[in-house]
Amino acid sequence: MKPDEFAHNLAQFNNGTNTWYRHWLDRRFFYTDGMKFVADNGAAWLLDAIFSHIKTKLALQREEFQVWRLKVSPDNTAILVADDGDGRKLAEQSIPFTDFPLSEIKIYVEVGYVDAEEGGYIMMLPGER
After folding, report:
1. What DSSP state is assigned to residue 88?
2. Percent of the chain whose predicted confidence (pLDDT) is above 70
3. Domains of the chain: which residue ranges?
4. Strand arrangement, sheet containing 78-83
5. How far is CA 27 from CA 9, 17, 88, 121, in A?
6. What is the pTM of this model?
7. What fold, for 3-128?
8. Rounded Cα distance, 25 and 79, in Å
9. How far apart are CA 114 and CA 91, in angstroms?
10. 80-113: string of b/e by CB count within 10 Å (b at 16+)?
11. Can you list the residues of the chain whose pLDDT is less than 70?
């Protein structure tokens, strides 16, 4: 998918989510319609990377809100960085190659409940918050 088409499609995810999806890595990891679109269009690895960091790093597990940014360079390398929403860096990963169509994407992860009984870490696009 071309970058402008991908960005246009991402813009439609701006009013919450209709469906909660459970990530394979941990039953406490959920994501929204917008993140499913990202995963279904060649970037399931991005969800895996973020949730893997949360699953293995206690400092991330203690944060109730996280902002993740993937920044892609013209040479197709990238950096994935998480902060606490106030600029305090929580995690960073260099990515040696990606064909992600945008130069940058921002993703939120917060602790919350998808219904009255199930809660965990919810990954979403900023417009879905």
Report:
1. -
2. 100
3. 3-128
4. 21-22, 29-31, 119-124, 104-113, 65-72, 78-83, 89-95
5. 28, 18, 28, 10
6. 0.96
7. Nuclear Transport Factor 2; Chain: A, (3.10.450)
8. 22
9. 25
10. bebbbeeeeebbeeebeebebbeeebebbbeeee
11. none
